[in-house]
Amino acid sequence: MAHDWQFSSANKKASKILRIKPRLTVTSNQAAINAAKQGLGITRIISYQVADELARGELQEVLAGYELPAIPVHIVHREGRMTSNKVRCFIDLMTKRLRADKILN
């Protein structure tokens, strides 16, 4: 079974599709992270999922020039007179935590 990985350069001028034939496939991100940590190969994973491993030197980033641009996080909800105070408090809490998270910003 072949898998395609698509890479775009940081300036978006170059794009490349790489067809790989993995020897190991997994069904969860954590399994892919664990395999990479054990030296079984490379994986494509979202940076915040491996921020601690990168900081400890357990993993290293490769192909940094082909990293996809950041995708903003949005909290979407219905505002109005029927809005629950619990929902408003949750939104305020999550906004504060997401903005304070150095890994996401």
Descriptive overview:
By secondary structure, the protein is α+β, with helices and mostly antiparallel strands. The chain folds into 2 domains: 3-66, no CATH class; 72-105. It has helices at 29-37, 51-56, 85-100, and strands at residues 3-8, 15-20. The chain has a two-stranded antiparallel sheet with strand order 1-2. The radius of gyration is 18 Å and the shape is elongated.
Shape: elongated
Helix vs. strand class: alpha+beta
Mean pLDDT: 86
Low-confidence stretches: none
**Ends distance:** 37 Å
Strand content: 5-15%
Assign a percent range to the helix content: 25-40%
Q: Number of helical runs?
A: 3
What series of H and E elements makes up the topology?
A: EEHHH
Order the strands across the largest sheet as they lie in space: 1-2
In short:
The chain has helices spanning 29-37, 51-56, 85-100; strands at residues 3-8, 15-20. With 105 residues, the chain is α+β, with helices and mostly antiparallel strands. The protein folds into two domains: 3-66, no CATH class; 72-105.
Task: Fill in the keyword field for this structure.
105 residues, alpha+beta, 2 domains, two-stranded antiparallel sheet, 3 helices, 30% helix, 11% strand, elongated
SSE blueprint and pairings:
Layout: E1 3-8, E2 15-20, H1 29-37, H2 51-56, H3 85-100
Antiparallel strand pairs: 1-2
